[in-house]
Amino acid sequence: MARIFGHILSRTDLLRQVGDISQIGGVREVRLQGGKEDGVRALEFRTGTGLEFDVLADRAMDISRCTYKGASLAWRSGAGDQHPSFYSARGAEWLWTFQGGLFATCGLAQAGAPNTDAGEDLGVHGRIGATAATELCAREWWDGEDYILQASGKIREGRLFGYNLLLERTISTRIGSSTIRVNDKVTNEGFEPAPHMILYHVNAGFPVLSPESRVYAPSLECLPRDNDAEVEADRWMEMLPPTAGFAERVYAHKMQPDEDGFVSVTMVNPDFQGRPFGMRLRYSHTTLPWFNQWKMLGQGAYVCGLEPANCQTLGRSAERRAGRLVELEPWEEREYELEISVIDGDEEFRSAREAASLEGA
Predict the structure, then answer these.
(1) Measuring CA to CA, which of 27, 38, 107, 317 is 20 to 30 A from 61?
(2) Distances 246 to 22, 243, 301 between C-alpha atoms, Å
(3) Domains in the chain, start-ordered, CATH in brackets?
(4) DSSP-assigned letters across all residues of 322-360
């Protein structure tokens, strides 16, 4: 059953009122044109609730634009959506092609700061986010009373005399839903152990982000990354107005999962057009034991990154030294689950806040 325009409609009730389901929502394959985004394959999703988002098939199937009833959930960088041919793996040059968006995938063998590990020079956040998907498939179908919208594909990070990691990604939602589900599987298809780092760079922006906004999370311990993050570290959950000269503050959180092994994190603007508005993340703690928070409240760079991960953000060499680096044996697999839901109104806000509290964990 789908809730559309305030009414709960059965499959029959809905189909009586439309000539084609695209009147309500669906998935449309498009190709971007002009400038640096020229030629990028994308999938446009609409769920009929006001949730609309774009999956960039040529950028690891990451989600860039995401709006709900016309309001953006995500921060967008000045780089915009770009073709992967503009990507550079050197140092911090990843930033030149970082679109922001609802989420950007970092990995699969490096995430975090530039570093050198095992003789390999590694740039910011790895290569996977600038890799195109193969075997791309967009599907729509009825599953009983639910109309499912889904995209899937494979994204490979591999080279001669190196590792061969395969990401199989499925992004799904349904008509009448305001939740996006991401199901990933990473497999080491090489014949030697391979380092594996993955971080989901979820980027909350205006109007979800405001001076009054707050992050609710079952954080057991908050670890500042550096001296900049030590400033007001005990107020990691609070935001500020866009601030000139703001130095980014990055925290690594140890979270308390719920009885099902999941963690819920909510970020809400308590008074957007007279109602709470924001997003809730829910992810599997088993394979994503760290939660990194990027608090970047500058002018133009006004964003709060909510980042479930299997690592911290100092890079692969630091993970290795700390004994945290994940290595996959040949043909070993890891699966990841992430949900992003819209918070719209008091009832949804209360429910999400309770799920994100230590008391509710």
Answers:
(1) 317
(2) 44, 6, 9
(3) 2-355 (2.70.98.10)
(4) HT--EEEPTT-EEEEEEEEEEEESHHHHHHHHHHTSTTT
CA atoms within 13 A on the CB side of 107: 33
> What is the SS3 assignment for 298?
coil
Q: Could you tell me where the beta strands, DSSP code E, fall in 2-50?
A: 2-4, 7-9, 26-31, 41-46
Two tokens, residue 212: 């009054």
* Overall residue count recorded for the chain in this entry: 361
Rg (CA), the chain: 20
* 206: its two tokens: 């205006």
Q: How far is CA 359 from CA 47, 48, 214, 350, in A?
A: 33, 34, 17, 13
Across the chain, mean pLDDT equals 96
What are the pLDDT digits (tens) for 194-203? 999 999 999 9
Enclosing H/E stretch for 251: strand 249-255
Percent of the chain with pLDDT over 90: 95
DSSP letter (8 states) at residue 84: G
CA 88 to chain centre: 21
